[in-house]
Amino acid sequence: MNILIFLVPAALLLGLLGLVAFLWSLKTGQYDDLEGAAERILFDDDEPEKDRPEKD
Amino acid sequence: MNDTAAIAEENPGADPEFFVRETEDGQARLDLVVAGMHCAGCLRKVEGALKNLDGVEYARANLSTKRVAVRWNPSRLKARAIIHTLAATGFTAVPFDPKLLGTLDEQESRSLLKALGVAGFAAANVMLVSVSVWSGLVTDMDATTRSFFHWVSALIALPAIAYAGQPFFRSALKALRAKTMNMDVPIALAVILATTMSLVQTMVNARHVYFDASVTLLFFLLIGRYLDVQARAKACSAAENLLGLRATAATLIAPDGTHRSIAVENLEPGMKVLVVAGARIPADGEILTGVSEVDTSLVTGESLPEQVKPGAPVFAGTLNLGAPLIVRVTKRDDDSLLAEIVRLMETAEQGRARYVRIADRAARIYSPAVHIMAAATLALWFALGAPWETSLTYAISVLIITCPCALGLAVPVVQVVATGRLLRQGVLVKAADGLERLAQAGTIVFDKTGTLTLGRPHLVNGDDMARADIALGAAIAASSRHPLAVALAAHGKELPRPLLKNVREEPGMGLEAQLDGETIRLGNAEYAGGQQRDMHGGSELWLRRGNATPVCFRFEDTPRPDAKEVIDALKARGFTVELLSGDREPAVRRLAETLGIAIWHAGARPAAKIARLEELTKEGHKVAMIGDGLNDAPALRAAHVSISPADAADVSQTAADFIFQGTRLAPVVEAIDVARKSRTLVFENFGLALAYNAVAVPLAVAGYVTPLVAAVAMSSSSITVTLNSLRLNLARRAKPPREV
Prior knowledge:
The complex is a heterodimer.
Chain A lengths: L3 H24 L6 H7 L16
Chain B lengths: L1 H8 L11 E2 L5 E8 L4 H12 L4 E7 L4 E6 L6 H11 L2 E4 L8 H35 L4 H22 L1 H12 L6 H20 L7 H34 L5 E4 L5 E4 L9 E4 L9 E5 L2 E4 L1 H4 L5 E3 L4 E2 L4 E2 L4 E5 L7 H15 L6 H26 L4 H15 L2 H20 L2 E3 L4 H7 L2 E4 L1 H5 E7 L7 H11 L5 H9 L9 E6 L3 E6 L2 E6 L1 H4 L10 E7 L5 E9 L3 H10 L3 E5 L4 H11 L3 E3 L4 H13 L4 E4 L6 H6 L2 E5 L4 H6 L2 E3 L5 H36 L5 H24 L10
Parallel strand pairs in B: 16-23, 16-25, 23-24, 25-26, 26-27
Antiparallel strand pairs in B: 1-2, 2-4, 2-5, 3-4, 6-7, 6-8, 8-14, 9-12, 9-14, 10-11, 10-13, 15-27, 17-22, 18-19, 19-20, 20-21, 21-22
């Protein structure tokens, strides 16, 4: 069962990575306008970096 | 959002410059409410138009809240240009009061979402380990590996519970301090006890730990709570948009004669303000110069505009229809109408019995029962000679299994589904317990002007009149904002219009114009030379061409298109319907007769309205008040539950528990149906939760509940309750969902 010493931390690390990603996306305001985000995918051209939503 | 557009249009006086804030790096920032933005195309047009403006650094539209944030270089662009650009693109944009931004609800939902993320992560990972342990228990797992897994669970669960459990711990603590019980008390207790016991079990290397039960419980309950807050935040943000649309600045005339914008709340007695035609009067005052007509329907319920001249008092919230006025702000006199209304609202607020929500009432019975049962289990096993550790374990497992996961979800899930469904029908649920209170109402009291009626006059004798007269009347009326003129112009907008010259308006009297060398006059009887008839609640305009005999247009404030059906539908559901209006008797009587309302009261001042509601309450009726005017606001507060249309006075909207949009009254019936259906579903959910407990509790008392059994029982009961709540969406819809 020594393999567990690697696998369990690996599983936790991946989960933690997901959590951090979620908290980051929340902090950068990506959940502020879910309806708008659903529609924006229909735009043809990509928007430049500076137009991303910002925090107040 | 039809109504927002309408409100925006009637408010030309708003000066955007006043709402501009300066950001740290010297840019100007403005938040705008954009009515009628609901697709990808609109988003693109709005953002595109703004970004093409010279000087705009940033423009981002939010489709969920219908707001746009713009940042620009103030030296290169003025705020007015931004609004004009949007208007040219076809969108009505109105500055949004920055004070309303970033409200408490928003912060609360954000922190709940964070807690939800943490609980979700912990639940998934602890479950991963727990499932391994459960399968290990029946196969070949040795004690060392099991212990290792338990420690891993503890490592994940402890910090996660400490963080994600906070909303429940805080609320439970608050309830205990106030010496009451709410659902969060048993939840917090079960989570803390289960976690502590599992930690001890882990230390002594026992077979069963309950970390998974604690974190999944938190995860499920946080979902319910987040959805609840989110649904309410959405309704509130829509309500804020409606109010924000009217957060207009007043135009102050400084002693040196210059004009500048000032916030309405900064107005001081003695200041002079300019009120342009079509704008609302910002404060109580006295007219210095100007003759005009003032629409007081929002304040008094009176359907006819009132003529005002220098020296006359005017009230905040009334609409200036005719010519520009200069008003001197007077001190709020204690007998002024507004002061009376404010005083009445405060009294009504104190008098309103504190309503205890269904969930909290259930918790008051449920929590002591559960805690007594756990204590009894402990005592029983101890008396039977079991060691105290075992007895304590069984007692805690009773707490875990009865922990009101299903009970905690029973109310919020129904609430979320109901709020969402009503939002799609144009009804905003503002009060958290509004649906519960609405379900209890048995008597419905309506206001007249603006509630049962549209609050706008309509031409009633159009069929008896010559087309040429209507066309001529409409043509001349088109240049006035007087409500009768607007109604006439709207009636004749299809007809070809004669070409008029030299149209001019005599405030308070009428309009005059030239056509083929003849003088045409449209106005009151005196002005146009007509013979005034009996004024039975309606109103009239006279049209005279040259020296011909004048003709009379008669107008009435028409009921909302579906008022009759709604009253019938309410009666069919067993409601007593009453009409309580501040308008004059003939108008009220006629409407009551048309709509078939047996009980009606006319000429009721705000205090009389409250008195009537108190009388009804004393007789044991639960009253739902539906009204829109400033004069209704105290009554809306005093009633058991209250509903306002979206074009109501600000104060009334703030006082009301529900707000409905659109010209139809049908959303009221829909709200009542949904509220009643919700109550049934909530009770069904309680029944389901109790049935599940009836099976699970004996098992727990007998000591048969392992973590696996607890997990299965908890998830299945939560899912059953959620599915049952979703049935509300399947229920038949009363009317087509949305009008355009």
